[in-house]
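From the shared-data thread, chain only:
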Amino acid sequence: MDEATLQFYRSNAEAYAGREITSRQARLTAFLALLPPAATILELGCGAGGDTAEMLARGFDVRATDGSPEMAEVASKRLGRPVETLLFHELDEVEAFDGIWANACLLHVPRDQLATVLSLIWRALKPSGVFFASYKEGDADGRDTLSRYYNYPSQDWLRATYAEAGNWNALSIERGEVRGFDHKMAPMLFVVAQKKR
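Structure, as C-alpha cells:
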C-alpha cells in the first residue's frame, strides 16, 4: 500500500467515517444474493463499517478488516466488535471465505502489485466463491487532489490482471460514477468475479 495514501486514511479516519454512502447499497445486495445464507465473508478496507453492519444485520458471518488502525478502531466502536488491521499483502488464508467484499480499497494498490494481491484473494476464496471490488477508471496510475494514489485501470487492463491472478468462472465489469471524499464525481468500474470450482 502506498504510504502517503495510508497516512491520509490514518489522519482522516474520523472525518472519513462521518460520510454515509448509500449508492453502493444495490451492489452490496446483489453481491450478497450470490452467496449462501450465513456465508463467511471477508471484508477488505471496511472503512467506518457501514457495509459490515449491513452484512451482519442480514445474518452473514463477517470478518471486517482495514489497513488503517485508526479506521479499524472507528469501525470497531461503531460495530461493537473487533475489527482487524490488515494490509492486503498480509492475507494468508486458503479457501476460507464464501465471499470477499473489497469496496473502494484495491484501487489504491500499486499497479505492479495488484496481480499479487488478487492472487492472495483468489487463494482465500473457497471454490465458487464470489469477489467484489471497485476501482476508479482510467488509463494510467496517479494521485488525486488529496495526494492519494490510485491505480486508475481500464476494463481491458483489469481483465488481464485478474486472469493473471487466478482462474475465474465468471468476471463481469460494470461502469458507474461515485462522489468521492474530495466531492468530485469519478468514473468507476465495479467488478464481480467467481472463483473456478
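Strands lie at 40-43, 61-66, 84-85, 97-102, 125-136, 142-143, 149-150, 168-179, 185-195.
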